[in-house]
Amino acid sequence: MDTFDWIVTGAKAAFLVVILLHVVPIMAWVERRGSALIQNRLGPNRVGPLGIFQSLADAVKFIFKEDPVPGHVEPFYYVLAPLVSLVPAFMTFGVIPFASSIQLGDRMIHFQVADLNVGLLYVFSIASLGVYGIIMAGWASNNKYSMLGSLRSSSQMISYEISMGLSVIGIVMVFSSVKLGDIATQQGELLTHFGPLLLPEALQFPRWGVFVQPVGFLIFLVSVFAETNRLPFDLPEGESEIIAGYHLEYGSMKFAMFMMAEYLNMFTASGLLATLYLGGWQLFPGMGYVLHEVQAYFQMSALAGDWTRIVFEVVSFGIKVGFFMWFFVWVRWTLPRFRYDQLMDLGWKVMLPLSLANILITSVFIFFGWV
Known about the structure:
65% of the residues lie in helices and 4% in strands. By secondary structure, it is mostly helical. The chain has one domain (3-367). Strands 1-2 form a two-stranded antiparallel ribbon. Strand 4 (193-194) and strand 5 (197-198) form a beta hairpin. The protein starts with a helix and ends with a helix.
């Protein structure tokens, strides 16, 4: 890499870090206002208009709050656990493309921090490290409730990671790549078949993953809730059973780091869902026409037109990610928590066989050229 490549990579990484740091306070506010809306109450409405600065006030409180280390914990691992949860949450989004690419002179700039040819495998491998922080927190706390929470988390994540990985195999089979940029690009094509039926040109629609892998999409969506410890799969926290689970002994910024990791994992999961199943940065139907009209009205040069296209793609990707982030909130304040035996039965007796059946059916469809 020469100096130009280092500058471009650094700029993309800085942009992504800024976005990730803003995700947590924004989602904390959305969660509070969303839950209040669903439960027919007000929510935060004092600190700033509509309580918009409440998250900022909470951040100041977390930073300046006393942060003692309890005497009965294992100090080194107790302090290390929040970092082990937070760092992988920051690392995973780096391979997800949030726009296509642009030509600057003789250089092609891709709008993802790292354009890895094993991007999908990288996401799964790094994301799986987050469970170590939860296990470490539960063990180092020397508290039976914390330990129960960490044990629940480890078994839950292992159970649903299998189904999640198998559900994505269908996408890999259809698009013949584990490179997220290639998967997003191929979803810009039109779907000419609906199973064995050949669609007329007027009825052809985008070849998004949700259309070619509907069962895989549902499996992945459910597994994501379990992987991020969100309701109805928040058994590791389980306030009504184990008080607060693995972070029971944590306060101040250490607790805030666990909360940040959860929201960042939600953001990464939403980005993956958008990239794999909703076309990634591909424009919504109708946005291409609007883009063309804007370029023609302002008589843009080729370079200005390309940058306008990038802006439209980032907006399209952001809308898709925002939808899934709201969906996390919506489900949390709508569905009750599962019992632990129901959680494990769903993972091993329903999700795993269904994901294996999906792979078999996908191979049949590919053999006959139906996807």
